[in-house]
Design a protein that fits this description.
Strand content: under 5%
Number of helices: 11
Distance between the termini: 43 Å
Structural class: mainly alpha
Low-confidence stretches: 2-6
Mean pLDDT: 93
Largest sheet: none
Order of helices and strands: HHHHHHHHHHH
Length: 238
């Protein structure tokens, strides 16, 4: 979250605290970032107002931090608040509202409110498709998240079909080394493997490993874990 130039001027001490909180969050120090972000909420509410874009964004940022800390009910509450305020301020089709809806849908699903999460993600995917187009990265992201959640929720055929479609579109539009394409590929590998299509899964994972080696380097933790994952599938790594 970045405070925009159009925001009312914030006191220097608030800006310093915001910079600190963002540095902590960006550095993965979510335990330390959480109380800083929570304390800033009162200042933003008072100085900017409850429906200012940056106040709403701060609720979303706190939700992300709580999600990283696996405090899922609290994360859900923050994401729900961000969405509710954005709906009041901007309506259902605003880009920010759709981003908050995506985040809440994912949080709901992870917290066990699967059907509500699926419903919200389905609506968000449809809105993004209509407003941004089917190949926009944000449309692809929401559809991929929906596919993974559907698969995990036992709606395997539907989820797998979505993941295969989105992986193909991501490859065509974004390329094999895009972050979203790699993420979708990883989820698709897992779905293929548990569906019994193990040779396809291993072949796809071998290709993903080569991409990780090129993009992240051979010693990156994701690369190393992917090599282990591939070896566990019985694939001989050359």
């Amino acid at each position: 979250m970045v405070v925009s130039d159009s925001s009312p001027k914030l006191p220097p001490d608030v800006m310093r605290r915001m910079d600190l909180a963002l540095d902590l969050s960006d550095g993965g120090l979510h335990q330390q970032a959480e109380p800083e972000l929570r304390a800033l909420l009162a200042d933003f509410e008072r100085l900017l107002g409850p429906t200012h874009d940056e106040t709403i964004a701060l609720y979303n940022a706190l939700g992300h931090t709580l999600y990283q800390l696996e405090r899922l009910p609290e994360a859900e509450a923050m994401h729900r608040e961000a969405l509710s305020r954005s709906l009041r301020a901007h309506g259902p089709d605003h880009p920010a509202t759709l981003a908050y809806a995506h985040n809440l849908g994912a949080a709901l699903s992870m917290a066990g409110h699967t059907e509500e999460g699926i419903g919200l993600l389905t609506d968000t995917a449809e809105r993004r498709d209509r407003l941004l187009g089917p190949d926009h990265p944000e449309t692809l992201q929401t559809a991929a998240t929906l596919g993974s959640i559907l698969y995990s929720a036992g709606r395997s055929a539907q989820g797998l079909a979505i993941l295969e479609h989105i992986h193909g579109r991501s490859l065509a539009v974004l390329g094999h080394d895009d972050d979203l394409t790699m993420s979708v590929c990883s989820d698709l590998v897992a779905a293929l493997h548990t569906s019994g299509r193990r040779r396809e899964a291993a072949t796809m994972l071998a290709g993903l490993l080569r991409t990780y080696e090129q993009v992240l380097g051979p010693n990156d933790i994701t690369t190393l874990r992917t090599r282990q994952r591939l070896a566990a599938m019985g694939w001989t790594i050359r």
